[in-house]
Amino acid sequence: MPSNQAANLPAIVETIAFKSRQGFIPQMRKVNQDNLMVSKDFANMKDLYMIGVMDGHGVFGHNVSQFVKVNLPLILQNLIKGVPRSELALNNQRIQVKGKNRNGVNSP
Q1: How far apart are CA 87 and CA 84, in angstroms?
Q2: Quick count: other Cβ atoms within 10 Å of Cβ 83?
Q3: Diameter of the chain by CA atoms?
Q4: Is 2 contained in some domain?
């Protein structure tokens, strides 16, 4: 559909609802690793929504889902703006995660 036709369509998102619950493992306290993001007028485009559900898994799942929640919208916005893909990389940055590793040892 041409963008001029899309501009004449009414907004169709009226309500957004979500529910999240932490996973369950007997005798283990788990962190809820889920994240949700809703962005209206995404990339400065009227009535364009970006809706994301990040379902974390593993020891650092909550960190990963938070990282995706923050960074994926930025990357997509830059792609829409025409930023070259070579400039979208996270510069091979190492992500420092604080907490306990799989063996229960604290990481810096």
Answers
A1: 6
A2: 12
A3: 57
A4: no
Q: Return the residue matching tokens 């809820």.
A: 32
Provide the number of structural domains found in the chain: 1
User: Would residue 18 count as lying in a domain?
Assistant: no
Each residue of 9-22: pLDDT tens digit? 666 777 888 778 77
Do the Cβ atoms of 24 and 11 come closer than 8 Å?
no
- How confident is the model over 60-104, as pLDDT tens digits? 888 899 989 998 998 899 888 888 777 765 554 544 445 544 444
104 burial (CB, 10 Å; 0-12 / 13-18 / 19+) is exposed
Residue 89 lies in a domain: yes
The whole domain housing 103 covers 33-107
The answer to whether the CB of 51 falls within 8 A of the CB of 38 is yes
Q: How far apart are CA 61 and CA 40, in angstroms?
A: 26
**Is residue 94 included in any domain, yes or no?**
yes
- Beta strand spans in the chain (E): 34-39, 50-55, 99-100, 106-107
